[in-house]
Every structure is written in C-alpha cells, then in structure tokens.
Amino acid sequence: MSASLDSPAPPATATPVSWRPLVAACLGTFLLVLYTTIVTVALPRIGADLGGDFTALQWVVDVFTVALAGLLLGMGSLSDALGRRRVYLAGLVAFGLSTLACGVAGSVTALVAARAAQGVAGAAMFATILPLVGLTYHGQARARAFAVWGTVAGAGGAVGTVAGGVLADLLGWRWIFLASLPLCVAALILAVTSLAESPPGGQRVDVPGIVAFTLAATAMTYTVINGGDHGWGATGTLVGAGVAALAVVGFVLVERHSRAPMVPPSLFGTRAFVGVLVVAFSYYFAAFGALPVVSLWLQETTGLGPTATSVVLALQVVVFFLVSALLSDRLHRPAPSLVLGGATVLIGLGCAAAVLVLAAPGWPALLPMLVITGFGAGIVSPVFPAVAIAAVPPSYGGTAGAAANSSRQLGLALGIALCGTIYRGHGQDTTGGVVQTLLCCAALAMASGLVAAHLLRRPRQQNRSDQPNQADRSDQSRQPSQPDHT
After folding, report:
1. Would you tell me which of 211, 355, 449, 450 could form a disulfide with 344, CB atoms 3.0–4.6 Å apart?
2. Where would I find the Major facilitator superfamily (MFS) profile domain in this sequence (predicted)?
3. DSSP string for 138-163
C-alpha cells in the first residue's frame, strides 16, 4: 500500500471510445422523430394533389402513431427474444422502404398504407435504440451518449415541423419523404458496421397480447374518426366501438393468463404507475393532438403558406426543447405529484388560451397557446419516464417505461382523431372549430392533471424507506426518455 502511495503507478491506457455507434443510433432517432411531425404542415398540399378528404388526411398522420403505439411494447419483447440489433436493422430497412413508398404514392390509400408500414418499422426502431446505446457505452461515456441522443431527439421534432413546410413549398410534398432516403442509407451502413448485438434472451413473445393491444388502439382511433365522418350511430362507428371494447377485454384476459405478459396486470394496482399513464396519455393528447387541426386552420383560414405555418408551429417545439434541456435536472427534486400533475394542468391552461382567437382570428392569437403548452410539455417530458420506473419493482422498470411511452403515443393518436372530429363538426366556422377543439384539450388536460396529482401523492403512513430517495431519483433522472415530439 505504501508503494502505491509514494510512487504512483503509471496511468492505465484507456480504450478509445468509438462514437460511430452513437452516430448510427442518433441518425435513426432523428429520422423517426422527424416523421412524427414533418407531415403535419404538408397536409393541405397532399390533399390537393391526391384528392384526399379530411378523414383521409387524418389517417395520413394518425396511422403512423397508431402503429407506433400499438406495437412499441411488442417490439420490445421481440427484441429481447431475437436480439436488439437484429430487430433495429430490420426496422431501419423497413423504414427506408416505406418512406420511399410514401414518396411515390399515387393515392391517399397508398400513402396511408405506406405510413402504416412506416409506423410498424418505427416501433421496431423506437423499442431498441436506447437499449443499444446502453449496451455500447458505459460510465461517463454512457451519460454523454444519452445527453447527445436526447439533444438529437429534441431537435428532430423542430426540424420536422419546419422542414415539412419548406419542402412542401419549394419542391412539393413528395420531397418530405424522398429527401431523407440518403439519410436512411447512411444510418443503415453505420448501424451494420458499428452496433453490437445483445445476446438473445430466449423469452416468450406475447403474440396474443400484441395483437389484442394493436387491434384495440386501431379500433378506438377508427371509431372516433368514423364517428365524426358518418355519425356516432353509424354502423361502422358502432362496429368499431364493439371491436375496440372486445379487444380491450381480450387484452386484459390475455395478460392475466399469459406466462410472459407484455404488461403484468399487477402493475395496474400501483397508484403511481397508473398516475404516470394518465399523465403520459393526456399531456401528449392535449399538447400535440390538435396540431394537424391548427395547421389546417392557419393555412386555410388565415392564409399562411406551409413555410410560415411551420415557423409558427415550431415555436412550441423550441420552447418544449429549451425547457426540457435547461430544467431537467431541477425537475426531479419536487414531488412528482406537483411536477407532473401541475405541468399537465398548465398544458390545459395553455390550450384554454386559444379563446384569444375569437377576439383576433389570426396566427398571433395562437402564440400564447403554443408557448404555454410547449413549456408544460417540456416539464413533463424528462420526468415521467423516471417516475414510471420508480413506481414499480426494479425487475419491471423497462416494462413500465415502455408502457408509459405507449400510453403517450396512444394519447397522440386518439388526440389527432378526436380533435379532427371536433374541428370538422363546425363546418364553415373554422375559427370556432379550432377554439372548441383546443378547449376540449384544455378540459382533458386539467382534469387529468388533478387526477394524476392525487394518484401520485405519497400516502402519509408510508415509510420513507419505501420510496426512492433523492439519490435514486437523481440516478433515474439521468435515464433518457424516448423522443417526445412523436
């Protein structure tokens, strides 16, 4: 011991860290997040070119999110069984091919089908990117890698919002898909040559659970869209509602009797976990579900072009990104009930600010709504994954995080569907329609925020030792969330 103190040993040669795997993961993440937002502003141009009606345009946006929400948990299970690199590469190839199919689609039906394939491929990528980064990097390099990844994920949403309008204006809507194909090829080459494979775990894949959950998500979205198009008593609407109800019951039964359920039913007996699911669903629904409607209103009523509309909507993403990046470390200190519940209520208040449009029906009246909802979403984003993980036993942490992200994507899918239905129900009164849509989002967010705050409140009689301590919460805060503007 004295020798080691008196004469320091020669420094160990550190193995150089290769950042090529991180570049591969970040490029895939950027593409995935990009296509959650890039289509929104181009919808009027797509409709004019392909002749799609309002319902078809809703599906162009929503089918991607439905596929992502419905298959995210299942793809996670599949990657555990088959190997994450293998599933990620398959998803990346399918993503590139489906993006090409979107760019050459000759009809709205073909475009919707290609967007569905994009969503399926995106789910395979979404479920595997972060575990692959965690597998590749360790210690300080891992923390740095996650920080870079989070920055790229946040930037992807902002770039998509702006790029969609600019490309649609300058080159035509098809280029919002075709322009990214070189990036898809580059991401695939980097991934093949740099990413390491995780050892297959041999776990069972819950195929019945995957089918039931995906069917439930699709049927619920179809019911809302068809109800607005043909009426809530229409045969198609009633059939969709029936299928959704049966699929939900089937999912519950399958999970209760499965030996390897995607989501163990016992987790739903945990108040905090349920509270996180409520927040994840409602904050994404309220903050981002109305954006396609707002985009249509800005272009069809106020006369803004796609590029100008992109710039207006990008304000929300920029605020969201800045708040999430600058305040993330501090947001884990207060009680989750205050942070998550309060921020969700704040999003509701932001949506309610849309009443200013009635007094001055132009794009400036939307700025308070965009700033406040972006601020609230930026508070929720870095916190809810860590709270979801801390709410359940350690062995279920990954499942809890994936379930929270699935709830978020489902909230976006149903938000787009319901907001579109409300907006179209106002016919020619588009200004009244956009205000009513955002007021409904406000009501949902404020009510959900209060419910979530109650569920996330710690029981007084619970021992402090049963709760994650400050160090634990700080540790969890460094685990990144999935891309949020998706």
Report:
1. 449
2. 21-460
3. -HHHHHHHHHHHHHHHHHHHHHHHHH
Q: Which helix (H) or strand (E) segment is 10 a member of?
A: none
3-state DSSP helix/strand/coil percent for the chain, to nearest 5? 80, 0, 20
Give yes or no for a contact between 61 and 43, defined as CB atoms under 8 angstroms apart: yes
Give the residue carrying structure tokens 């907001």. Answer: 419
Q: Is the dihedral of CA 325, 328, 329, 330 positive or negative?
A: positive
Does the pLDDT at position 322 exceed 80?
yes
pTM of the model: 0.79
CA distances from 461 to 374, 387, 457, 466, 472 (A): 36, 20, 12, 11, 21
For the chain, the first-to-last Cα distance in angstroms comes to 55
Tens digits of per-residue pLDDT, 204-213?
777 888 888 8
Taking only the tens place, the pLDDT of each residue in 11-23 is 444 556 678 888 8
* Residues 476, 389 contacting (CB under 8 angstroms): yes
Taking the C-alpha atoms of residue 245 and residue 428, their distance in angstroms, rounded to an integer, is 34
Q: Which two tokens stand for residue 103?
A: 């760019």
Tokens read off for 241: 């509602």
Sign (positive or negative) of CA dihedral 76, 77, 79, 80: positive
Q: How far is CA 101 from CA 37, 92, 160, 169, in A?
A: 18, 14, 19, 21
Identity of the residue numbered 256: R
Residues in CB range of 106: below 8 A, 6 or more apart: 50
> H/E element holding 458?
none
pLDDT (tens digit per residue) in 125-174: 988 887 788 778 877 777 677 767 767 776 777 788 788 888 888 899 99
**pLDDT tens digits along 380-403:** 887 887 788 788 887 676 677 778
Q: How far is CA 168 from the centre of its chain?
A: 24
Largest CA distance in the chain: 86
What DSSP designation does 231 have?
-
Give the separation between CA 450 and CA 446, rounded to whole angstroms. 6
